[in-house]
Amino acid sequence: MSSTSHYSSANQQPIGVAVVGTGFGQKVHIPAFKAHPRTQVVAVYHRDLAKAQAIAQSQNIPYACNTITDIVSLSEIKAVSIATPPFLHYEMAKEVLQAGKHVLLEKPVTLNVDEAKELYFLAKSKGVIATVDFEFRFVPGWQLFAELLSENYVGNKRLIRIDWLGSSRADAGRPWNWYSQKEKGGGALGSLGSHTFDYINWLFGPVRRLSAHFSTAIPQRQDANTGEFKPVTTDDTCMLMLELADGTPCQVSISAVVHASRTHWLEVYGDRGTLVLGSENQKDYIHGFRVWASQPGKQLTEIEVPNRLIFPKNYADGRISAFLRIVNQWVQGIDQGEEIIPSLREGVYSQLLMDLSHESNMKSNWVDVPSLEEFLER
What is the pLDDT of residues 271-321, one digit of tens each? Predict the structure, then answer.
């Protein structure tokens, strides 16, 4: 897709979409599908039918369902968007794909890479278009940063540093839930690292080996239903060292329990120049990214994001702007019947790096990363 957001022409048939999951789904997915000229929200899923019906009524959505079987049996539905917690993704996406419907999946795509690989091949065999909400690929500042990198602004890369520091889990009073449970796909690596591994692959290419160390600052949280304190089995801070396939060292710090002003920062140092991408916007992790550049010995100078990359419209919830571009890419893929980027293939790679990070953390050593081609052929 060109970086500009020219949406597909409105003279084609609307695509009936079901939204599965009503947290992020209600905040971001439903408004985005309603805003896109080609998508129509036909059904909404919640495991509690009464809640599904209430949401359907308030959002003017024709159908409310509490099973995926009901969702995929609706002939009006051509595509399904899944925004449930990670432990539900695999079974839900599998049923959707087996029914021959296109799928948009939130990240992390599954609980392990074998599940992700199975979904990727299932989508291919069914000839449906599957995408993953790796939205940083569609954020204006990130697209400018990618262009400058591809123009070889920094020359030979010598060091990459990434800090993604947030406070979403910093409050020890925040209740225990699925995010606190490793077996349900919770933790900072799943929520933030899944994005980080995708954009490292997009911006800098594959990883050759990695070393990971995880920690948990808040070891127990209170269950809001029972009042008892339960153990947190997930990471809330992840320290990663990567060696890229081209030999570049990359240092990554991710935390969901710190109060930092530099919330999301990427620095790339090369023999010809330096590029920095960063945002101090805690409230909205999509907007606020700026790009700075310098040549050796010169001051870092901000580079303005060109108009052709800017979101055509901003929303109160900034995540909608980037998600709309994912939807647009998906619609184009559906229209043309061609696999798009990001597809489940990118989801598999992100999941592979997460699985290997868990292995490295457990063994306290470096782990080699196979190429994606090699892994998919196994």
Answer: 999 999 999 987 888 999 999 999 999 999 999 999 999 999 999 899 999
Handedness of CA 167, 327, 120, 52 (dihedral sign): positive
d(CA 344, CA 229): 37
Rounded CA separation 69/88 (Å): 14
Confidence of residue 4 (pLDDT cuts 50, 70, 90): very low
pTM of the model: 0.95
Give the residue from 48, 75, 289 showing the smallest Cα distance to 164: 289
Alpha-carbon torsion 124, 109, 195, 284, what sign?
positive
Alpha-carbon torsion (16, 17, 18, 22), positive or negative: negative
Contact between 300 and 293 (Cβ < 8 Å): yes
- In angstroms, the CA 320 to CA 33 distance is 9
Distance between first and last Cα of the chain: 31
Is residue 176 within 8 A of residue 216, CB to CB? The reply is no
Q: Which among 123, 170, 163 is positioned nearest to 340, based on CA atoms?
A: 123
Both tokens assigned to 140: 């204006």
Judging by DSSP bridges, how do beta strands 63-65 and 229-231 pair with one another? unpaired
For residue 339, pLDDT beyond 70 = yes
Q: Stretch 41-61: mean pLDDT, rounded?
A: 97
Tell me which DSSP letter residue 223 carries.
B
- Asked whether the beta carbons of 288 and 199 are under 8 A apart, the reply is no
Q: What is the DSSP string of 306-328?
A: PGGGS-SS--SSTHHHHHHHHHH
Beta bridge partners of 18: 43, 80
> Residue 1: which pLDDT band, with cuts at 50, 70 and 90?
very low
